[in-house]
From TrEMBL:
Protein name (record): Uncharacterized membrane protein YgdD (TMEM256/DUF423 family)
Keyword Transmembrane helix recorded: yes
Signal sequence residues: 1-26
Organism of provenance: Rhizobium metallidurans
UniProtKB keywords: Membrane, Signal, Transmembrane, Transmembrane helix
């Protein structure tokens, strides 16, 4: 079993949860009193990365770096969105530099997809 096959179920679960949470946070940012910019930013990242993780889970065998891209995007999105939601509702982030760390992880996840274009899959 390849790394892509091992991580595919995780990416499917994260995709569904990110999509759900992204829509919920978009609604919350529109309807809650106060500044909704943290929730709107978290929602945007969740909604942007949910379909990316879905694509990596479904087509990962065609991209050698799908497992790495998915892990970076998944962890990065959790850190970024989690930190912003914690800031809004708890008044403090997850830990210092959680959102920037998550942001960099997401960016490197996208670079892992690009790098995968240059790495050929081995013949099956």
């Amino acid at each position: 079993m390849t790394l892509n096959q091992r991580f595919s179920p995780l990416f499917l679960v994260l995709s569904g949860l990110f999509g759900f949470a992204g829509v919920a946070l978009a609604a919350a940012s529109a309807h809650l009193d106060g500044d909704g910019r943290f929730l709107a930013s978290a929602s945007a990242m969740l909604i942007a990365h949910a379909p990316a993780l879905l694509a990596l889970a479904l087509a990962g065998e065609r991209l050698r770096t799908a497992w790495l891209a998915g892990l970076l995007m998944g962890v990065g999105t959790l850190l970024f969105a989690g930190d912003l939601v914690a800031l809004r509702f708890a008044g403090a982030g997850l830990f210092p530099m959680a959102a920037p760390t998550g942001g960099f992880a997401m960016m490197f996840g996208w670079l892992a997809i690009a790098a995968g274009a240059f790495l050929r899959n081995r013949a099956r």
